[in-house]
């Protein structure tokens, strides 16, 4: 059996890649849902790959990952919007840095970019700061929903005979007859022939369970505002000039029509510190307004949130085989979600096949396509009408912000969603302006109807995040 530790975008895609060759793959995720670690809280950008340090593993895998997203999108039924990105020069000193970006792009073999003069830039992005002088435009950059990539990857693993086990936190490892005996927090034990550690922020701690050392991971927090869809701000991703530490505070259209402003980049002490702060949000406001002055932070804010980057002093991905023969996929900071499909191939084709000399043959019975739950308002009218004829719930809108129907929610629950957030990330319900005020009770009721759970047992997301704390008369 091959075990993958960690059900984020990286572990999900690695498990899927291995599963193309071997049926006996197990993915173990510590939390009760998939894709809710780093994969949940980030900018969602498929980067162009032009500005990672030339020669780094990040640079090597980012552009390939970007290109693989066409296939990922087709096979996993994921929405990828290649809306392009601009790095904006706002003054003379920043103009010089556009040349540096061109030099880096050349070293990283990225050819898909153009330098746009003021007029062309404002034709594309009329709401930019009027001081903008020029942009480095990359048309292959885009946005996606990284948690959906993780969720659809594990769906693909299950479809092809692999196992995806949640609430499985790896806590102890023993070596037995050249195999690994993996013990989990819930007392269960599994034996694996090969292990891939893709534990995100905790990959350094998981490596230590195997007696291996990888570069220490420390969390770097990024705070964001999510803005609503009712105002049109920009058409593409807007970057300032990048610094050594970060790509800067950006303005990003989201897949479902809203906008993100952020992130900050400040080292924090705890890997569990997802708080937003007055100072962090003030910094996001100031920096993003410098790019797009019309951003309305007084009336258009939907929510604020923070994500944690798994940073290392080396500032690069660490993907290698440890002394124990375990493959560690660690330090997967930005552009990790872009690179993730390429990381999965690197692990299987280079580390497993070439370095560990394990011969693998592609399965003939492998099913590459995974269906998604149709979002009916995005389908054509005839399709939707036929769906309603077959099932009236396809016409019953439950989420008015994102126009999600009862049918979509029921499908998500039938596909295994048990928490409010699992339904939310599968369908986009309660992602919108009302943030669930109108729909959480309806989702809760449907989870109870479908699964037989008591309302007090339904969680928002992690353990202890119950919504109702006592008996209810009726729901
Ligand atoms: C603020 C911010 C912005 C970013 N923006 C971008 C961007 O725009 N584009 C881009 O390409 N990248 C971006 N990134 C980087 C990208 O989000 C990450 O590289 C990627 O999500 C990492 O995914 P992962 O699967 O490695 O980690 P995770 O999603 O954290 O998955 C690891 C999983 O392992 C599980 N786990 C941990 N310990 C154990 C254990 N002992 N046993 C079992 N399971 C365990 C965790 O619960 C978790 O679910 C950004 C990151 C941040 C924080």
Bound molecules: flavin-adenine dinucleotide
Count of distinct strands: 23
CATH architecture title of the largest domain: 3-Layer(bba) Sandwich
- Please identify the top-level CATH class of the largest domain: Alpha Beta
Share of helical residues: 25-40%
What topology does this entry show?
Layout: E1 2-5, H1 9-19, E2 25-28, E3 45-46, H2 57-76, E4 80-81, E5 85-89, H3 92-107, E6 114-117, H4 118-124, E7 134-138, E8 142-144, H5 146-159, E9 163-165, E10 170-176, E11 179-184, E12 189-192, E13 194-197, H6 203-209, E14 218-227, E15 237-239, E16 250-253, E17 259-262, E18 266-267, H7 278-291, E19 301-311, E20 318-321, E21 327-330, H8 336-355, H9 381-390, E22 397-399, E23 404-405, H10 406-414, H11 420-427, H12 440-451
Parallel strand pairs: 1-2, 1-13, 2-9, 5-15, 13-21
Antiparallel strand pairs: 3-8, 4-8, 5-7, 6-7, 10-11, 11-12, 14-17, 14-18, 14-19, 16-17, 20-21, 22-23
Helix pairs in contact: 1-5, 1-8, 2-8, 10-11, 10-12
The chain binds flavin-adenine dinucleotide (FAD).
């Amino acid at each position: 059996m091959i075990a993958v530790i960690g059900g984020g975008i990286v572990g999900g895609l690695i498990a899927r890649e291995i599963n193309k060759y071997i049926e006996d793959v197990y993915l173990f995720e510590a939390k009760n849902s998939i894709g809710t670690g780093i994969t949940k809280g980030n900018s969602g950008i498929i980067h162009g790959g032009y500005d990672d340090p030339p020669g780094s593993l990040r640079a090597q895998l980012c552009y390939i990952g970007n290109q693989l997203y066409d296939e990922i999108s087709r096979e996993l039924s994921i929405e990828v919007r290649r809306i392009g990105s601009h790095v904006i020069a706002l003054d003379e000193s920043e103009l010089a840095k556009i040349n540096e970006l061109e030099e880096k792009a050349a070293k990283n073999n990225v050819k898909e970019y153009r330098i746009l003069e003021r007029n062309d830039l404002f034709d594309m992005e009329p709401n930019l700061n009027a001081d903008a002088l020029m942009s480095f435009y990359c048309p292959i950059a885009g946005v996606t929903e990284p948690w959906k990539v993780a969720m659809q990857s594990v769906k693909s693993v299950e479809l092809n005979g692999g196992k995806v086990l949640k609430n499985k936190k790896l806590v102890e490892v023993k070596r037995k007859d050249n195999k690994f005996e993996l013990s989990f927090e819930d007392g269960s034990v599994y034996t694996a022939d090969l292990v891939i550690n893709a534990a995100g922020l905790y990959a350094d701690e998981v490596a230590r369970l195997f007696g291996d050392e990888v570069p220490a991971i420390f969390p770097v927090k990024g705070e964001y505002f999510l803005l609503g869809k009712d105002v049109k701000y920009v058409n593409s991703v807007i970057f300032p000039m990048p610094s050594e530490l970060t790509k800067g505070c950006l303005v990003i259209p989201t897949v479902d029509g809203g906008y993100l402003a952020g992130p900050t980049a400040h080292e924090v002490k705890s890997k569990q510190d997802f708080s937003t702060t007055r100072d962090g949000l003030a910094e996001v406001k100031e920096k993003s307004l410098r790019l797009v002055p019309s951003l309305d932070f007084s009336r258009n804010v939907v929510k604020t949130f923070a994500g944690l980057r798994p940073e290392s002093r080396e500032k690069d991905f660490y993907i290698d085989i440890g002394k124990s023969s375990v493959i560690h996929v660690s330090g997967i900071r930005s552009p990790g979600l872009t690179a993730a499909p390429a990381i999965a191939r690197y692990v299987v084709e280079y580390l497993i096949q070439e370095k560990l000399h394990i011969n693998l043959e592609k399965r003939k019975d492998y099913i590459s396509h995974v269906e998604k739950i149709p979002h009916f308002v995005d389908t054509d009218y005839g399709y939707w009408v036929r769906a309603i004829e077959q099932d009236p719930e396809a016409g019953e809108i439950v989420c008015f912000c994102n126009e999600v129907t009862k049918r979509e929610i029921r499908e998500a629950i039938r596909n295994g969603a048990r928490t409010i957030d699992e339904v939310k990330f599968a369908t986009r319900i309660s992602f919108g302006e009302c943030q669930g005020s109108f729909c959480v009770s309806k989702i809760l009721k449907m989870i109870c109807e479908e699964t037989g759970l008591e309302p007090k047992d339904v969680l928002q997301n992690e353990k202890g995040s119950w919504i109702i704390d006592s008996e209810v008369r009726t729901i």
